[in-house]
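User: Teach me something about this protein's shape.
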Amino acid sequence: MENTQKYLELEQAYVAHNYHPLPVVLSRAEGPWVWDINGKKYLDCLAGYSSLNFGHRNERIINRAIDQLGKVTMTSRAFHTDQLGEFAKALCELTHMDMVLPMNTGAEAVESAIKLARHWGYRVKGVEAEKANIIVMAGNFHGRTTTIISFSDDPVAKEDFGPYTPGFKIAPFGDAAAAAELIDENTVAVLTEPIQGEAGVIIPDSEFFKGLRKACDDANVLLIFDEVQSGFCRTGYTFATEMTGVRPDMMTLGKALGGGVYPVSAVVGKREIMGTLRPGEHGSTFGGNPLAAAIGHEVCQMMQEGTYQKAAKERGAEVVSVLETLVRKGIDSYRAMGLWIGVDIDPAVGTARQMCEELMERGILAKDTHEKTVRLCPPLCVTEDDTKFLTDAFVASLEALKQGK
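Assistant: First, the predicted structure itself:
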């Protein structure tokens, strides 16, 4: 514990306080497991906000990274490389899109999609200069850049960071008719998450997406899905887009695209949108670098096998079977899609943060959101024994909260 305190004090003194971590100091990881500096083992049920869908230090991804590290890691897009084209082709085939704009982080991908939508609006749709608007959803989370927080309704992310970027309208998540009402002659896109993760794993009815697709088609407006957190098998589908029954015009990707090893993100979309960009109009020094492209290519190849999609569905069902027995017995409700689960703790029992602290004592690392929701999203390489460990710890932690221990 003395060593733990040393590292906690170092971070407190020298790192900006933009996170509120649990008091655990991790030093090693493998598969779905992590170890702290004292050797205690934990099941990682956050998985780097779904960056680690394939587990810590996944052997295939690590080996591909090591191989590329021995060749070339960075050149900039001023030159061609032998990795980028193959990666882009594989990602287009996986997403059924035409072109890729490679970037680094999820927020950067969303910013790029916003720029592309406006660009298309002015150059193709014919929207008057400086008049483009984009419809977004209440409760959204797309990142924390200045533009993105401008259309957030989360006061923690937004307050005291203005002035804010104009050009956005907010519709209720799940209400396609309300979104359609906001569309006007200057609307260039509707941007939504298929499932709102940060909001607590909020899953809308599939009719919502069909309604959005029709509204966009009727008004010549782009439909953009943010799959940064929902993509790459977390929901039991390769992309959550598959559950919606519609095809978007663009998708933003990130997190698991880098395999938990390296920041890799991308915008994928139709050629008539992506092809509007001209040299110099958008870029990224590290976007599409050879190391990122090699890792992303390996992830795309892994997606073709169906292993992780199947695991998400099966392991998620195991966790849900236990949660069902706890409704009105310590939890108010839960929402699940694949191995992505939001559990609302009964406020009379305790807060989500207190539940996460109890889980930590029992070898589970999870994350709270919005005071009452615990998110459970372990790496998709967990076994049936691992999910049993998780559910046993969850039941015991809930009981401890009830008893005030």
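Now, about its shape. The first helix runs from residue 2 to 14. The chain has a mean pLDDT of 97. If you'd like, I can walk through any region in more detail.
User: That's plenty for now, thanks!
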